[in-house]
# Entry
Amino acid sequence: KREEEAGRLKFVCVSNDGIDEHMVWLIGLKNIFGRQLPNMPKEYIVRLVMARNHKSVMVIRRNHVVGGITYRPYVSQKFGEIAFCAITADEQVKGYGTRLMNHLKQHARDVDGLTHFLTYADNNAVGYFAKQGFTKEIHLEKEMWQGYIKDYDGGILMECKIDLKLPYT
Ligand code: BCO
# Structure
């Protein structure tokens, strides 16, 4: 919190818009995903991080990327699909992952107009997602998301309802 007050820590949401600074951050985030999600093909990571229909919420400290979440907002369906989520190795378990998720929820609700998130969580990330309010019970009607999100084996589908009023940050 102190670093945030000193202006050294910031949370941003960017997509591939050609702005130099955004590109540098997206490349930094893509590299973190590459290291932290070894089972994901590198080309797949680059493709989604750089896709114009995806957005990335990132933690930036002293102009370096600490971690981030890449998601695809399905605005007409009012839900977002989280594609990747990671914090750089030496900064994990310091609370960044939680704060990142809170910023994501606030942005998704207030800017994209979303009400839910869905994600296929890795087995070992289920605990983290559960602490962020995700459940294995899916309340969204299947017609809302089936055919939109890509299902992949090895992941467990989890859902999070975004509170309509809660100040997340
Ligand atoms: O609040 P508490 O202190 O009780 O709990 C903390 C952590 O202990 C707990 N936690 C963190 N990682 C966990 C976990 N619990 C179970 N299993 C885990 N793997 O969650 C609470 C929040 O901790 P945090 O805010 O300090 O989390 P952190 O470390 O900043 O960020 C969490 C991760 C999961 C983003 C980070 O550890 C990470 O990058 N891990 C490696 C990459 C990864 O597993 N990413 C998620 C994979 S799923 C994916 O991206 C594909 C589909 C979404």
Summary: The first strand starts at residue 9 and ends at 14. The helical segments are 2-5, 20-36, 42-50, 96-112, 126-131, 142-145. The radius of gyration is 15 Å.
